[in-house]
Design a protein that fits this description.
mainly alpha; about 190 residues
């Protein structure tokens, strides 16, 4: 499990790095800014700029989603899980993570079929095959599959070890933790 953790940690760091490079928008903002300047100042346009910006966003979505999946920070609505008895909760949580693993695994599989299929065109403006853009789907979803599987295995380990305290805190975000995330905010409830 330690080797798996190291490999997934390295993949997660790589995904975060790629997502950060795209999200900091050095590429994206520069491309769009140059396009705006050319369009409105020089009354001309750079034909490939919108296409490349769109492709960067596609990669950002899939690689960024994988990076978030590694830390299991996607949006979750845990009200149902929090209301379940503690004895049932681990099974539901593990089932949800395994279902997530299967779902993103299917996206990765069909995304790979899409990439390997014959339906690709070359961009007339940049000459780049759409295969390179479509490759973001199986790569991002494949990473999400590995990270979801790792999260499920971790939960199974806690469950098999009888660590119900771990599951009792699942989805918990109290006022004290919100105050820690947002310093300077009062946690006191207003008096009426």
């Amino acid at each position: 499990m330690a080797i798996l953790d190291r490999v997934l940690g390295a993949l997660g760091a790589l995904a975060r790095g790629v997502a950060m490079a795209l999200a900091t928008a050095i590429i994206l903002i520069l491309i769009l800014a140059v396009q705006i300047v050319f369009r409105y100042v020089f009354n001309s346009s750079i034909v490939w700029s919108e296409e490349v910006a769109t492709w960067c966003l596609v990669w950002l979505v899939f690689i960024g989603a994988a990076s978030i999946m590694q830390r299991w920070e996607h949006v979750q609505i845990t009200i149902l899980i929090r209301r379940l008895p503690l004895g049932i909760r681990p099974g539901v949580i593990v089932f949800a993570k395994l279902a997530t693993c299967v779902a993103v695994g299917l996206v990765a599989y069909y995304g790979l079929q899409w990439v390997l299929g014959p339906a690709h065109i070359r961009s007339q403006t940049s000459g780049i095959s759409t295969r390179w853009i479509k490759l973001a789907v199986p790569i991002g979803a494949g990473l999400m599959t590995l990270f979801a599987l790792r999260a499920a295995l971790e939960d199974i380990g806690h469950w098999r070890g009888g660590d119900l305290e771990y599951f009792s805190r699942y989805g918990e975000l109290g006022l004290d933790e919100v105050a820690e995330v947002r310093p300077g905010r009062s946690t006191a409830t207003p008096k009426t």
